[in-house]
Amino acid sequence: MIIQFFIVIFAIFVLAKVILRFKVRDITGRELLAWIVFWLLVILAALWPQKTDVVARLVGVERGVDLLVYISVIVLFFVVFKVAVRLEKIDKQTTKVIRELALRQKFGVEEKPDHHND
Question: Where does the sequence pass through the membrane (predicted)?
Answer without folding.
Answer: 6-24, 31-48, 68-85
